């Protein structure tokens, strides 16, 4: 395992962190609470034994069960080997008292008396100017630090660069967690944000390194571009090496679902040198592959499932995934028959818009669902479905 400086602290973090948002479950729903506990505990412990020293979860992951299962994995001496990170559920926090209440609930779920890094979850302009500022949550967090309940404060982020800069400048954060990969070069905080935070001594950590799996199994034209250059390098490794190539990135969190993925990521982490990609390989990803992807992927859904459940039982990520894949992989007819098999599910959308506040990508689901139905259910083309 390779280790890097964690911002301006003394801590050396493993380049790979274990994200507990996609633990193995007994059913198809990614955020299902039915975690296969024994398998998840084995995976987390194996990663720690191989040198991973940072584990991350959040209040809503697996509808609350992620924190519980991680707490179990950290028994038997594993807690002492890692920094533990979880997040304040800002989507639920309405008052300063709520902040404390959820923090205590999380300590209980995790069965610990101390959280090393406590993040404000999914900060955006609305939350920054709303609940965080109006309820003085930074002061609340300072108090929790003084009481010894949390070590350091950070934030995860989903908005644009100007908001990011404002947040960074407002507090001496220990870390930030950003959605960053070679497709998100200019979206969200982007590369500019990564450099800015690092220049301030904030540890930059990365989530969604594979953009919800898109970069691990890209469409054929992209596979061809990558294979032509380094045939033996797996696609996910291109994405991880691109991140680790940057000195500003301290650690990459991967939400692992199988032991096979854990082992593959650990193997890749051995190669996590700064400047391990040639200038040519960097340019290939940041310019040619980036451009091609932008032509192929129509909706930037990362399949995080934050928008679920929908009151009408619309499976939003499944529908968007079938739609995107149909275009990107050039097999719309196959996706149309899958759509039939899943019960023409997007048609159930009543366009209530309830799901949209939770979407970190700002996707207008209520506008996309009817469009998905017109393309997949009624056989229309994308341009005529708009
Ligand atoms: S807009 Fe559609 S998909 Fe979203 S919650 Fe409402 S019914 Fe469900
Ligand atoms: S629509 Fe948004 S919230 Fe829902 S899975 Fe996709 S990215 Fe996540």
Structure characterization notes:
- This protein is α/β, with parallel strands linked by helices and 386 residues long.
- The protein folds into 2 domains: 3-293, Alpha-Beta Barrel (TIM Barrel); 316-385, no CATH class.
- It is built from 15 helices and 10 strands.
- Helix 6 (161-170) runs parallel beside helix 7 (190-199).
- It starts with a strand and ends with a helix.
- The relative contact order is 0.10.
- The mean pLDDT is 93.
- It binds iron/sulfur cluster (2 copies).
- One iron/sulfur cluster is lined by residues 301-307, 316-317, 320, 358-359, 361, 363, 365.
Break the fold down into its secondary structure elements and pairings.
Elements: E1 3-5, E2 12-14, E3 16-19, H1 37-49, E4 54-56, H2 65-73, E5 83-88, H3 96-110, E6 115-123, H4 125-134, H5 137-146, E7 150-157, H6 161-170, E8 175-179, H7 190-199, E9 203-207, H8 220-229, H9 235-244, E10 249-255, H10 259-269, H11 279-296, H12 316-328, H13 332-341, H14 365-377, H15 382-385
Helix pairs in contact: 1-2, 1-10, 6-7, 8-11, 12-13, 12-14
The structure holds iron/sulfur cluster (2 copies).
The site of one iron/sulfur cluster (SF4) has 15 residues, from helix 12.
